[in-house]
TrEMBL record:
GO terms for molecular function: 4-hydroxy-3-methylbut-2-enyl diphosphate reductase activity. GO terms for biological process: nucleoside metabolic process. This is 4-hydroxy-3-methylbut-2-enyl diphosphate reductase. Keywords: Oxidoreductase. Gene3D superfamilies: Nucleoside phosphorylase domain. Residues 1-57 form the Nucleoside phosphorylase domain. The lineage of its organism: Bacteria, Bacillati, Actinomycetota, Actinomycetes, Streptosporangiales. It comes from the Bacteria. The keyword Transferase does not apply. It comes from Actinomadura verrucosospora. The keyword Oxidoreductase applies. Its EC number is 1.17.7.4.
Length: 91
């Protein structure tokens, strides 16, 4: 597990740009989280949990993405209850 800054990009980020974000301290890049957070009313707490299937050495458009995607689904199934408890604690 890694905790740290999450960058939202407007496109799929490839290797060279990914290295730039990583050097800046970012832990992950997605295309949705900031947009979802911006659509919420002010004052609503936001948490983003990302399970990454592509990264350095594991490009997105490769056969191994399917296997990593299935592993990611298992991780999300295990972490979902923790997010539900977090949301309930805020209510």
């Amino acid at each position: 597990m890694h905790v740290g800054p999450l960058v939202t990009a407007d496109r799929i980020v490839r290797e060279a740009e990914r290295r730039v974000w990583a050097a800046d301290g970012s832990r992950a890049v997605d295309m949705e989280s900031a947009h979802v957070a911006a659509a919420l009313p002010d004052g609503i707490p936001v948490a983003a949990l990302r399970v990454i299937v592509d990264g350095p050495g594991h490009p997105l458009l490769r056969p191994g993405t399917v296997t990593r995607g299935l592993a990611a689904r298992r991780v999300l199934a295990r972490t979902g209850p923790a997010l539900e408890r977090w949301a309930a604690a805020l209510a």
